[in-house]
Amino acid sequence: MKNKNLFLILTIAGASAFFSCNSQSQKPPVTKTVVDSSATVAVNMLPKAEYDRYHNTAKHFFDSLLKDINGSYLVAKDGQVVLEKYVGFIDPQRKKDSITSTSAFHLASVSKTFTAMATLKLWQDGRLRLEDDLTKYFPNFPYPGVTVKMLLTHRSGLPNYVHYLESYHWDKRKLVTNEDVLSTLYTMHPPLQFATGKHFAYCNTNYALLALIIEKVSNMKYADFLSTTFFKPLQMNDTYVYNISDSLTAMPSFEYNNRRFPLEFLDLVYGDKNVYSTVRDMLKWDQALYAGKFFQQATLDSAFSPYSFEKNGKRNYGLGWRMTFLDNGKKLLYHNGWWHGNNTAFIRLIDEHATIIVLGNKFNKRIYQSKKLADMFGDYQQHGDFEEEGAP
Fold first, then answer.
1. Nearest residue to 318 via CA among 392, 209, 226
2. Are the CB atoms for 208 and 178 separated by under 8 Å?
3. In the structure, what pLDDT confidence band is assigned to residue 21 with cuts at 50, 70 and 90?
4. pLDDT of 36 above 90
5. Separation of alpha carbons 246 and 123, rounded Å
6. Which domains does the chain have, with CATH numbers?
7. What SS3 state is found at 33?
């Protein structure tokens, strides 16, 4: 592999690749060596009995939960895939083009993990401050007191463009851009949802504005910054940020009855959505979110800490991450996504170095129940506990 920052050397008798399109029949390699720009670390792979236990449990779980999924899923422990499956068609309406390992799905709000970590990379590098007022980036921003950190934590109180543009009679024949989201805050000036900084409310406007801040600070387009900073170094070769030129090639999404969602006026806004990726590329992203890759431990600790305490409960929101705190001290990190017919779940169990990734392009709410599989790795008490987008 040509990547200078990160590549994998895999050694296994009788095999030539770490991933397999049919991972159900794949046996674990004996060792792997991870080589990056700073160190070479030999890591023992899972013992066969442990691998088989994870594989069989996960297979039984998903065969039951998602037998009608149109999409893909992957489960991994210590970076090693224990289950990987691709089901259905890019166009389930016409049953055309089978989904494969390179089929990139719209991540919907799971895209926010990239926006958040890109912002934190700029913070870690000293190029912005989380306490910066938005007037530093947007002169005379009409909602005083909003900071970068409030955008990350959904505590800004800003109105959600997904709702106010329609209520303020935006011409739906015109596709909305991030710049339009910003400008309409000035021109339409919809009211705050609540006093700035007072509590949590999930809001896509926050992350559309963060994408613009990333562009201002980096002097690069959002898509180029993500590609240069994350996608290319990690060889996430099937991951990209959608734009209008991708309309004919990007994976479409469908309602549960196979009705296709057409391009609509909100579909060009990025930062809150519009990263497309595969389960294999998302595993690379998961593995990069440990100290020593792109981020210092202090940066990760900030990202994965809770910031909203107005309501009692186990759930909270960090800097771009949902989280559940259990009474036994366990912490489950995740983010869900839902846009049109796309449902996605990205679940990280950092104590066990395990991850669960599910991507679908045909509406299927059961994807969000994938958190229940966390109990296979530890005492996460997730049976019967899931939710869609909303309060932490």
1. 392
2. yes
3. very low
4. no
5. 31
6. 6-376 (3.40.710.10)
7. strand
Nearest CA to 107 among 210, 239, 17? 239
Percentage of the chain with pLDDT > 70?
86
Here the tokens at position 268 are 């060009």
**For residues 125 and 225, what is the distance between their CA atoms, to the nearest angstrom?**
14
Q: Which token pair is 5? A: 């920052």
Q: What is the pLDDT of residue 329?
A: 92
Spatial distance between the Cα atoms of 367 and 256, rounded to a whole number of angstroms: 13
Q: Which of 23, 72, 103, 109 is catalytic?
A: 109
The confidence score (pLDDT) of residue 42 equals 37
Residue 22 has pLDDT above 70, yes or no: no
**Is 109 annotated as catalytic?**
yes
Beta-sheet strand order (sheet of 40-44): 6-11, 31-36, 40-44
pLDDT in tens, 118-135: 999 999 999 999 999 999
- Residue pair 268/349 in contact (Cβ under 8 Å)? The answer is no
Helix axes 178-187, 204-218, angle to 10 degrees: 110
CA distance 250 to 258: 17
CA distance 119 to 213: 8
Q: Is the pLDDT of residue 166 over 80?
A: yes
